[in-house]
Design goal:
Helices cover 36% and strands 17% of the residues. The protein is of the alpha/beta class.
Length: 450
């Protein structure tokens, strides 16, 4: 079979029914030995990838608008990422930055500290292996620094699946079912989900009731503000449905946090690293958090997470928190190469191609009565499916059908939230590929309303 580089095509090609015979055989083997907790939306068995394209084991080619769940920022197997991994693997694979020193770990920390929009202050960086570990570090750090034990989070949020981050997660109850008691101290309030405002407001009539509720309801009746270590929020909500809040939401969160001596933690695990057309989504809103968590796109597929904080906040002592594999030299090399690509070309491409896609997709509610809302920043775009635009009744079955129909036409997309289709392709996607994805979505929607 030819490799992707040899056939070098930029668009899908389906040569067999899905799933093909090789894919079917591997899926059966998977069912016998892999955890049944994994969720697979459709039967894709990946063999190789390049750029924004994926090839399965039967030779079918797909345009990937998932990016490994917003992870492969530089695309699949970008030659500069591969070269950085190979070079580092030939020199040092592991030594544990918890106990020893190596230069590229320092270099990456310096780079992240310089980039993180935490204000004109000294910053420090902690490395782990994943997003959920980055959040766990942030929670422990907030408690350590403030001496307080409680947190405010938001409905719809996803912060991870380990027991601390799971306590903050407010996305789906199934993620917590069977795991109680989870870590205590998380209190949830509505997010600034303007299409479905919990307080029945419109953007014009909004007084940021979702933030007012923290002070006027939560702090007044059940949670003393002086017990709260931090407010934890995604600048753009990911698993909750790719929801983009208004500017005043962040202005009010920062004001509230400062008033009560509470830390503000931005979870940029899905929306960071160029995804929204800026290095970090926080830059769209001009509000500086005290702590940030990043992962996913940071190393183009290598396992790495980072917690970045103001130095005065990351003031814990040696032994307070650590990770054997966090800041692994090979992962760090991939991250340094990724950031270089982001700064040189990929952030600009995400902003440009994302604006083009959003411009086209923004017409969908006018064309299709089952599309309620289209929203996003850069290459982080959500299409919310409804049964009726007037009532906004959620239509998860229509979202799932749209996802399946796209797969059958060679475009890989996944859901987010109860009824939203997420579009988060590698940041190398071309305008022509983006147009193919939009054309395919429109074709599927036309079929659905026949």
């Amino acid at each position: 079979m030819n490799t992707l580089a040899e056939v070098r095509a930029d668009f899908p090609r389906l040569s067999s029914a899905l799933p093909g015979p090789k894919a079917q055989a591997i899926i059966e083997r998977d069912r016998a030995v892999l955890s049944p907790s994994y969720t697979r939306g459709y039967p894709l068995v990946v063999a190789r990838g390049e750029g924004a394209m994926i090839e399965d084991v039967d030779g079918n080619r797909f345009l990937d608008c998932n990016a490994g769940i917003a992870v492969v920022a530089a695309g699949h197997c970008h030659p500069r990422i591969v070269a950085a991994i190979r070079e580092q693997a030939g020199k040092l694979i592991h030594m544990s930055g918890t106990d020893f020193y190596y230069e590229n770990m320092v270099e990456l920390a310096e780079k992240l500290a310089a980039l993180a929009p935490l204000g004109a202050v000294q910053k420090r960086v902690y490395f782990g292996n994943s997003g959920t570990e980055a959040v766990e570090a942030a929670l422990k750090m907030a408690r350590y620094h403030t001496g307080r034990g409680q947190f405010v989070a938001f409905f719809g949020a996803f912060h991870g699946r380990t027991m601390g981050s799971l306590a903050l997660t407010g996305s789906k109850s199934i993620q917590k079912k069977g795991f109680f008691p989870i870590v205590q101290g998380a209190h949830h309030v509505p997010y600034a989900y303007c299409y479905r405002c919990a307080y029945g407001k419109t953007p014009d009539s909004c007084s940021v009731e979702c933030v007012q509720a923290i002070e006027n309801t939560l702090f007044r009746h059940t949670l003393p503000s002086e017990e709260v270590a931090a407010i934890v929020v995604e600048p753009v909500q990911g698993e909750g449905g790719y929801v983009v809040p208004p500017q005043k939401f962040f202005d009010e969160l920062r004001r509230l946090a400062d008033k009560h001596g509470i830390l503000l933690i931005f979870d940029e695990i899905q929306c960071g690293m160029g995804r929204t057309g800026k290095m970090f989504a926080a830059e769209h809103f001009g509000v500086s958090p005290d702590i940030m968590t990043v992962a996913k796109g940071i190393a183009s597929g290598m396992p790495l997470g980072a917690t970045i904080a103001r130095a005065e906040v990351m003031n814990w002592k040696p032994g307070a928190h650590a990770s054997t594999f966090g800041g692994n030299p090979v992962c760090v090399a991939a991250a340094l190469a990724t950031i270089e690509l982001l700064e040189q070309e990929l952030i600009d491409n995400a902003a440009r191609v994302g604006a083009h896609m959003l411009g086209r997709l923004g017409d969908l509610p006018k064309l299709f009565p089952i599309v309620g809302d289209v929203r996003g920043l850069g290459l982080m775009i959500g299409i919310e499916m409804v049964r009726d635009q007037a009532t906004k009744e959620r239509a998860p079955e229509l979202r799932d059908l749209l996802e399946q129909l796209c797969f059958e036409r060679g475009v890989l997309v996944l859901g987010a939230g109860p009824n939203t289709l997420r579009i988060c392709p590698p940041l190398v996607i071309s305008k022509d590929q983006a147009d193919f994805a939009v054309d395919t979505i429109e074709e599927c929607l036309r079929e659905m309303i026949k």
